[in-house]
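Translate sequence into structure tokens.
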Amino acid sequence: TLTRSEADGYVRIEDSAAEGPHRWRTVTHTGPLDAALLADRPVEERLRPHWSVTWAVPVDDAGAPRYPRTAPVVHAPTPTDEPLGIPALLIASLPLDTARRHPAPGPLTDFLVLRAADAYAELLADWRPVTSGALDLVPGPLGKGPLDGALRDAILDRLPRVAFLAPAVPTEDLPALRPIEAEVVEGAGAETVAVLAEVFPTLLPAGLERRPELRTLGVGRVPLTEAVDRLAGVERAPGWWRRLYDSLAGVDPDRLTGLPVPLDSGRTAIGPRQVLLPQEGTPAELARLGLKVAHAEAAHPLLEKLGALPATPRAVLTTPQVRAAVANSLEAADGWDLDAPEPDADELAETVLGLVRDAGLEPGDEPWLAALALPDEDGELAPAGELVMPGSAFAEVMREGELAHVDAELAARWGEAPLAACGVLANFALVRAADLVLDPDDLEPREGDYPEPDDAGLLDAVDVWCEDVLDRLPEAVVPPVATEIVAVRDLDLVDDDAWPRALSLLARPPLRDALTQPVRVLLPDGTTETVRSYTAWWLRDHPVLGGRRPAGLRAEGSDPLLAGLYDPADATGFEDEQVLRALGVRTSVAALLDEPGGAAELLSRLADPSRPVSGPQLHALYTALADLDPDQVTLPDELRAVVDGEPVVVDAAEALVADAPDLLPLTAGLPLLPVAPSRAADLAELFQVRRLGEAVEAEVTTEGEEHEVPAAVHALLGPSTPATYLEHEELRAGGTELDWRLTPDGVLHAATLEGVAAALAWATGQWPRRFEVAALLEDPTRTAELARDRWFD
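Result follows.
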């Protein structure tokens, strides 16, 4: 038993032989037929000039469509063999062919196809509830037969204008969408689409992009990037924007570059870049600086990911707007928001100083802050970099009247730290410049505007320093480039009596590096050289050490070998040897020779007869010079030599390196260069002079008696000790009496016991042991005693 009933728009079929009822959604259209449509039909059909079309779709308990369990064929009204691919049951008064298996083609069939399409469109228009499940009823573009294809074409021609698609956010005014007005956002999640639908109500729910039915219906597709761009100009509460940002977390940032951001000024910025995210303590007056500060209720971590910056004091300071405001603070606030009341210089100074303080900046961290206009002691505005902090270390060493002090009330209110970070001189300031072309004509400050803090033209006589550097470098058509210079400015403003205090300031970090570190210069051929820093160059040539120039002075208490050659200077407080070397104050021979040009300077002073030098001092200096590379030392014209025991200046070509102690009695009137025996050959090569042993011929003119060297001496001097020596009653060479002589053939000649000891010690390269050898020769029984004493050599 089948029972049919209707309720709530459904047809209910109950089957006594089955469990549970079946619900259907149906639509039926009927009407009279025009006689012309029946002209080619049989008589019995012409006697029934009426038509009817019924569509029926089974639904589940939620009202969503299901595919009919009936055979997928056209019913006319009984089943035919005509296939039907549309997901619904069609019962229509279609004319059949003579076999009654297929609808007969003709005007009547064409007419009923159109009526069936109208009825199907009405079925979808009235479908309730409106859900995305209605897409299952959209036929595909390809039919299973001629009639099915005709039905599909007619239905798809009508559906784009039928409101049956469920919107992402249904409303009473818009419960369903027509495909021609609907859009689907590609690449957006459900949360994002739900938020966007509050602005764009024609959006379909997320997740439908791949449904082929949407392409069949011609539903518009909007990439997420385009959807974001459409938000420009949309006005919504900040909370709505935050919900949108929250839904977009995880989306590729490249697709969100044009995402609008509501600002606390009431405006909306297009794109998060250059937008500041408010933080606790962010100043409220930032909008007056023309800064884009996001509304606090809209701030979201996604914005920082897309280029927005947390509104920390440092981030605010480094924005282009603040930098422009500071750069123009002496004239007009060109970088300020034109629609907001322009702040005066005092307001700008207060804002910037507060940001500097909160950011904890140190002097030199942001050099451009030196252009900030601040009131001086007379109430006039001046760049911060040209003002001095009252009572500061720099104020104590500056010459009176050179620079104005910052306003006392301002200094007391803010303190030294933020003002110094803005460029106010509380200590010496540094100029930093990278890739500086060493052209003296270019190293001049720009006229008119306040110079940039990294402008090397701020340095006194920097063009002269540049010329001096170029003189020391190989000539080139293209000027060399200093890869980086760090120099102390305003040295010319120091009071003459304040230099001890000023030098102590310069000897402390970070100023110390500007003094001690050389400058690396890149030459046109790709090689590099190092030159003296600007700061060291300037201080060397000015009377900064006891009223004298440091270059050419010697620190008191330093290397005694430099005594007499350099005037002593009190370097109390400058125990740092690197600082003294940078100033040109000499501390040791080793440090002097290690510096470029140091050897030439030492030889020049040795050749100055007005500078006293002792024999032992000269011996030590020449021994140190002998270690140098001859290619790095310019041959001197004059040398300090010892003539008959007195150090005197002689022509370098006449000097002899004293390398043979046995020939010293033959050197009356000869200029000798004293040096350690092991360095004699090196010194002769360095100065291109002869050695004493090469210049003086001393052939022994008397015969001697051969003696064996005692075993005790062999034990003392080692296996290199000669086996014998020749003893002479009187030893003469070159007409002069000698104590001993080691001839070029290696034979030892001696006339005295001391001579034998000296000859043996010299022959074995153990000259300091000659007195010990003499003691053994005089008393061989002292072997044990002397051996014990050698424990302490």
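Note: Residues 332-341 have pLDDT under 50 and may be disordered.
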